[in-house]
Amino acid sequence: MLETHGGRFFCKGAAAGNPMGWMHRNEARINPYLPAQMPRLQWQIEADGWLVLGFEYVAGRYPDLSPGSPDLPAVAATLSGMAVALTPCPIPKVQAATVRWAGRVVPEAVDGQTLVHTDVTPHNFLIHAGGVTVVDWSMPCRGAAWIDTALMVVRLIRAGHSPEQAEAWAGHVPVWSTGRPEAVDAFAAGIAALGRDRQQQRPSASHLGPLADAAESWNHYRSGEMPRAGHLVREMPGDAAAGGAPRSTGARTIA
Question: Structural domain tally of the chain?
Fold first, then answer.
């Protein structure tokens, strides 16, 4: 955070030659296309070998994703709003989900016309009096509208939900029901394998192990390799019973 006479700014920067610098440039390019409630880029400076971005400062706290948290409805509403506002994808050139997960997930499972965030760690969600703000749009892609919700399912499992509870929560995001069961199954399998590979590639990154475990647990659930827990997440006020894409249970009729 940078305090100036003109106000506060959230700043991020990298050495101009840093291999990860493309993420900052990508975020600066994408920012004008985001919904109005997302922090606007105020300035971009590249000088003396550094690239620095200055965004509107948003004061807030990270959501609690644990079972029964009062923050869960707000997170669901935020993902719902993002999917609506960012369909069709407003950015002319952005990586396709079919490329992002090539070799991990069959293209037809993740193809779509929604701009999806893809990095739904709770540290990228800020809860405040005005609602929820989503930050760090450095590596979105264009794909199926339900992808961010699926990735949040893994985060909920990481936070203590059973896979069944996490999918029940996902049912409160309308686009979740648009995911064909076999497509969600393929995605769950792909990110479980990818998560385990990343953990093995970066053993010193302590957060990757629990996240890989969560993704693996979800994949086992969807493939029928573990019993249903029988416990649903607390129903959100005013909502009907959660729906959404069910796990694989063998033969089924698909509309």
Answer: 2
